[in-house]
Design goal:
By secondary structure, the chain is α/β, with parallel strands linked by helices. It has two domains: about 120 residues, Rossmann fold (3-Layer(aba) Sandwich), CATH 3.40.50.720; about 190 residues, Rossmann fold, CATH 3.40.50. Helices cover about 35% and strands about 15% of the residues. The protein has twelve helices and twelve strands. The strands form two sheets. It has a seven-stranded parallel sheet with strand order 8-7-6-9-10-11-12, with helices on both faces. Strands 2-1-3-4-5 form a five-stranded parallel sheet, sandwiched between helices. Strand 4, helix 3 and strand 5 form a beta-alpha-beta unit. It binds 1,4-dihydronicotinamide adenine dinucleotide (NAI). The site of 1,4-dihydronicotinamide adenine dinucleotide (NAI) has 30 residues, from helix 4 and helix 6.
């Protein structure tokens, strides 16, 4: 068997980890650096599977074009699947798989890294000291100990973040339509309605998936409910926050700080080296101009362990798909 698989939006590190994954030698790997769209879908011709990432756009026309090109399996090498029209995929008979949990620790730890960096102004101190500016003016942070953290979404990642923050001695409250009661009791975490979490939290962190219901969860109305001076961290999906409303709240000095690993319009910007180029996105430019905003370019997942696990599960499912076998448990959408 040597089944062709077309990989879209790949970087050298993707190719490296996938090529080294067990079973990858049984597949004919075709790596593309461009993203999958309706326009690029015909390049998959000859492949029976495609492998895609968070910013590939698998809407109905794109899926139809893949199907017409002979593709029968779409393997997402990520957990989130908001970029795939699953209904259309089902109607076309396309199998869709993902990697539901590769390293929730990677994302949880990055979330806390962002929070600590922003709160203790490490990003500013790093630059200052390199310029031999040893002044502390403007670098004052606050003790996390004793403050309240609000975790929205207590799945795999949200729970780990909550536990780490409990370790700092924070009071942790949470909101989730499906509360994990036993876990919350064990860790001393209280579930509260969303409005209460927004109003009481000094630190708000988002760990829910992007769905039609959660789109712009933080908007003009809900941001007005957030405790004045609170810090917001989003390592989940950019579209959970209405960026225009977020900028307005920052300009009105109602927020202490914002740390983002994801951005509403990150597609085509994040993962690319655009240094030396004009940034055409005015809202991202504005966000980057605030001293109390910290942005990383969707790197929360980016650890050795996570990349190896993503590659392992993806390659195994691609091999199983090529053999007509059932996919790994819990990976089929
Ligand atoms: P999960 O599926 O284990 O947990 C999600 C939780 O959110 C569930 O408990 C669910 O009940 C809850 N939820 C759903 N709708 C909600 C709502 N309206 N309000 C509050 N809670 C709600 O997912 P996991 O693995 O913890 O991942 C969370 C998100 O993190 C993913 O959906 C993905 O978008 C994002 N992510 C980001 C990465 C990055 O590199 N920045 C990497 C991996 C995931």
């Amino acid at each position: 068997m040597s089944t062709a698989v077309a990989f879209f939006d790949t970087k050298p590190y993707d190719r490296d980890y996938i090529a080294r994954a067990p079973g990858a030698e049984k597949l004919a790997l075709r790596f593309h650096d461009f993203r999958l769209t309706t326009e690029t879908a015909p390049t998959a011709r000859g492949a029976t599977a495609v492998c895609v990432f968070v910013n590939d756009k698998l809407d109905e026309p794109c899926l139809a074009a893949l199907h017409a090109a002979g593709v029968r399996h779409v393997a997402l090498r990520c957990a989130g699947f908001n970029n795939v029209d699953l209904k259309a995929a089902r109607a076309l008979g396309l199998a869709v798989t993902r990697v539901p949990a590769y390293s929730p620790h990677a994302v949880a730890e990055h979330t806390v890294a962002l929070l600590l960096t922003l709160n203790r102004r490490i990003h500013r101190a790093f630059n200052r000291v390199r310029e031999h500016n040893f002044s502390l003016q403007g670098l004052v942070g606050f003790d996390l100990h004793g403050r309240t953290a609000g975790v929205i979404g207590t799945g795999k990642i949200g729970r780990l973040v909550a536990q780490i923050l409990r370790g700092f001695g924070m009071r942790v409250i949470a909101h989730d339509p499906y509360p994990a009661v036993e876990w919350s009791t064990t860790h001393g975490i209280d579930y509260r309605p969303l409005e209460a979490v927004l109003a009481e939290s000094d630190v708000l962190t988002l760990h829910l998936p992007l769905t039609r219901e959660s789109h712009h969860l933080l908007n003009e109305r809900t941001l007005a409910l957030v405790k004045p001076g609170a810090t917001i961290v989003n390592t989940s999906r950019g579209k959970l926050i209405d960026t225009t409303a977020l900028i307005a709240a920052l300009k009105a000095r109602r927020l202490g700080g914002v740390a983002l690993d994801v951005y509403e319009e990150e597609e085509g910007i994040f993962f690319e080296d655009l240094s030396g180029e004009l940034l055409a996105d005015d809202e991202l430019s504005r966000l980057l101009s605030f001293p109390n905003v910290l942005v990383t370019a969707h790197q929360a997942f980016f650890t050795e362990e996570a990349l190896a696990e993503i590659a392992r599960v993806t390659a195994e499912n691609l091999v199983r798909g090529a053999r007509g076998e059932s996919f790994l448990d819990g990976t089929t959408l």
